C-alpha cells in the first residue's frame, strides 16, 4: 500500500510539472508566432516603413496637383496652363504644333 501512494504522489508531481511545461511552451510559442508576437511586430514594422514611404510619395503628388490647381484659379490664370488643359480636354492641336504619338504602355 505504501508503494502505491508513493507512486501516485510521484506521478502526480510529474503530471503537474508536465502540465506546467506544456503551458509555458504554449505561451512561449504564441509569444513568438502569435497575432501579437515577435514575428507579427517585425511584419508590422516593415508595413509601417512601406506605408510611410507611400505617404511621402502621395504628399508630393498632392502638392504637385495643388500647385497645378493654383495656376488655374480665377484670380490669376496662367495662360500656358489654361491652353494645355483646353487642348487636352478638347483634343485640339494647332496645325503649327509638332505632335509625337507614343505607343500605349
Walk me through the structure.
By secondary structure, the chain is an all-alpha fold. Helices cover 74% and strands 0% of the residues. The protein has helices at residues 2-33, 38-71, 79-90. The longest helix has 34 residues, at 38-71. The mean pLDDT is 85.
Proportion in helices: over 70%
Rg over CA atoms: 35 Å
For the sheet with most strands, the description reads: none
Number of helices, counting only DSSP H or I runs of 4 residues or more: 3
Amino-to-carboxy terminus distance: 89 Å
What class, by secondary structure content?
mainly alpha
- Reading the helices and strands in chain order gives HHH
Tell me the total number of β-strands: 0
**Tertiary shape:** rod-shaped
Contiguous low-pLDDT stretches (5 residues minimum) are none
The overall pLDDT, averaged over residues, is 85
Indicate the proportion of strand residues. under 5%
Mind sketching the topology for me?
Blueprint lengths: L1 H32 L4 H34 L7 H12 L15
Keywords:
0% strand, rod-shaped, 105 residues, 74% helix
In short:
This protein is an all-alpha fold and 105 residues long.
Amino acid at each position: 500500500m505504501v508503494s502505491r501512494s508513493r507512486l501516485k504522489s510521484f506521478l502526480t508531481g510529474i503530471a503537474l510539472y508536465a502540465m506546467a511545461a506544456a503551458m509555458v511552451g504554449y505561451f512561449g510559442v504564441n509569444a513568438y508566432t502569435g497575432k501579437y508576437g515577435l514575428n507579427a511586430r517585425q511584419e508590422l514594422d516593415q508595413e509601417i516603413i512601406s506605408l510611410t514611404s507611400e505617404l511621402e510619395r502621395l504628399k508630393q503628388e498632392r502638392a504637385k496637383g495643388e500647385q497645378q490647381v493654383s495656376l488655374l484659379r480665377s484670380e490669376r490664370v496662367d495662360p500656358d496652363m489654361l491652353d494645355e488643359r483646353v487642348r487636352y480636354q478638347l483634343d485640339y492641336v494647332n496645325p503649327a504644333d509638332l505632335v509625337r504619338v507614343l505607343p500605349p504602355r
